[in-house]
Amino acid sequence: MNASKNFDTILELRLSGNLAHFRKFYTNASSLSYTIPPRTAICGLVASILMLPRDSYYQTLCSENLGVGIRIPEGTEHRKQFFTMNYVGDEKNINDVSGHKQCRLELLMASKEQKLSWTIYLGIRQGAEPALDSLEARIRAQSLGFDVYLGQRQFRAEIELLRKFSKADFSVLDTSEYVDSVLSKDQIAELDSSSFHINIERMPLEQALETKGKSSYRRSVRFADVVMETSGQRLRGQFSDLIELQNEEKTRISFL
Predict the structure, then answer these.
(1) How far apart are CA 197 and CA 208, in angstroms?
(2) Which terminus has fewer CB within 10 Å in the chain: N or C?
(3) For residue 228, which of 186, 198, 204 has the smallest C-alpha distance?
(4) Residue, of 49 and 27, whose pLDDT is higher
(5) Are 122 and 67 contacting, i.e. CB atoms less than 8 angstroms apart?
(6) Closest CA to 123 of 41, 240, 7
(7) Which pLDDT score is estimated for 2?
(8) In angstroms, rounded to a whole number, what is the distance separating the alpha carbons of residues 242 and 118?
(9) pLDDT higher for 219 or 176?
């Protein structure tokens, strides 16, 4: 995404919880999880807060109207572990073992008795979509609509507003010598850091609802190889298309 999009406000949020599962799009019987919430998961979370119906919000929350940046807090130690889950259809009696289906589920967990936590940045174009104009007030009041989850409904989450940046509080950078958030691999010209913990995951970034005959289905329409420093360290090198926030750290982020 081009960071020069005309966002008027950036909301800095903390998203946290005990367990998470963000299903990788290519996984099947064994459900693998991403290390961070993908942009599509953040859009689903925003839609839940705004009480937008399922599959109705893809255009409302497209990258033209909503920028999504994700930062891993410094010192983070997340880990993954497989569990075997028993699933049963609604029409089956839960005590009828013949109706159970087992699936290996990879859960994202925090280490050292911490919570899972990410800093989320949402860039908003005021007036672009009326529904988005109420997002800040809803989070401040903790009026969270259908509530917030980390990938699946059993993994309840907490979200809080840390800071609001007005248009005068951030600027667009064509190039930068450091970055503090996850970003697309295409934005990296050079990495200078010698000691870091890099992970690259291919993720869907945007979705659309398409109709074929009498059926409608959801389809991912934009992907990226997302690069992250999993311990939350600042990456140094040569990067393009970032936003600099006017805070003490001069935090620089990328919108996916």
Answers:
(1) 33
(2) N
(3) 198
(4) 49
(5) yes
(6) 7
(7) 55
(8) 19
(9) 176
Composition of the chain by helix, strand, coil, percent to 5: 10, 50, 40
User: What tokens appear for 79 in the block?
Assistant: 């880990």
Give the pLDDT confidence of 135-182 residue by residue, as tens digits: 999 999 999 999 999 999 999 999 999 999 999 999 999 999 999 999
CB atoms within 10 A of CB 141: 8
Within 10 angstroms of residue 73's Cβ, the number of other Cβ atoms is 13
> Whose CA is closest to 164, among 117, 116, 205, 126?
126
Q: Mean per-residue pLDDT for 12-27?
A: 93
The residue ranges of DSSP E strands in 31-93, in sequence order, are 66-71, 78-88
CA distance 87 to 214: 30
**pLDDT for res 58:** 94
Strands of 89-182, DSSP E? 100-110, 116-124, 149-150, 152-166, 170-179
CATH of domain 9-88+102-253: 3.30.70.2660
Amino acid at 24: K
The DSSP symbol for 60 reads: T
pLDDT tens per residue, range 120-132: 999 998 887 888 9
163: left (phi over 0), alpha (psi -120 to 50) or beta: beta
